Amino acid sequence: MTIFLGDNMSDINATLKDLLAIDGAMGACIVDYTSGMSLGTEGGGVDLDLAAAGNSEVVKAKMATMNSLGIEGSIDDILITLKDQLHIIRPSVKHAGLFIYLVLDKAKANLALARRKVQVFEDQLEI
């Protein structure tokens, strides 16, 4: 599912295409974690709309835990490692309530470089 955002949709689509150009990238989406809905998806590897909803709960749970523990600041990123895949969740500092989700093939990806590029694309994203 894609939510139409007018002129901003082209920036979302461009960002998603840039994310898929990262070595080992299989799928990417930009997610509104307050609703669990993806604003745009590209590629695959997993059901990205379902992953958007599920990972929204992960982000909300981590933020609630940080709040309960009195930890100030924001989440840079969340890394989930699976047998054959790496999943990067990067909440946006610039756009509250959004995160970038990237699925990588573990055998083909350079994790450090992928994390850095996701940060750069998140910084450049205009919505």
**CATH-defined architecture:** 2-Layer Sandwich
Under the CATH scheme, which class?
Alpha Beta
Mean pLDDT: 92
What's the tally of helices?
3
Q: Give the amount of beta strand, in percent.
A: 25-35%
Could you state the order of secondary-structure elements as H and E? HEEHEEEH
Q: Which strand order do you get reading across the main beta sheet?
A: 2-1-5-4-3
Do you know the CATH topology?
A: Beta-Lactamase
Q: Superfamily at the CATH H level?
A: Dynein light chain 2a, cytoplasmic
Taking Cα atoms only, what radius of gyration do you get, to the nearest Å?
A: 14 Å
State the distance separating the first and last CA atoms.
18 Å
Number of strands: 5
Runs with pLDDT <50, length 5+? 1-6
The total domain count is: 1
Q: Which bin fits the share of residues in helices?
A: 25-40%
Note the main sheet: 5 strands, antiparallel
Shape: globular
Features:
127 residues; alpha+beta; Beta-Lactamase; five-stranded antiparallel beta sheet; 5 strands; 39% helix; disordered N terminus
What does the model show?
The protein is of the alpha+beta class and 127 residues long. The longest helix is centred in the middle third of the chain and has 22 residues, at 48-69. Strands 2-1-5-4-3 form a 5-stranded antiparallel sheet, sandwiched between helices. The protein has 3 helices and 5 strands. The chain has a single domain (8-124), classed as Beta-Lactamase. The radius of gyration is 14 Å and the shape is globular. It has helices spanning 8-20, 48-69, 111-124, and strands spanning 25-32, 37-43, 78-81, 85-91, 98-105.
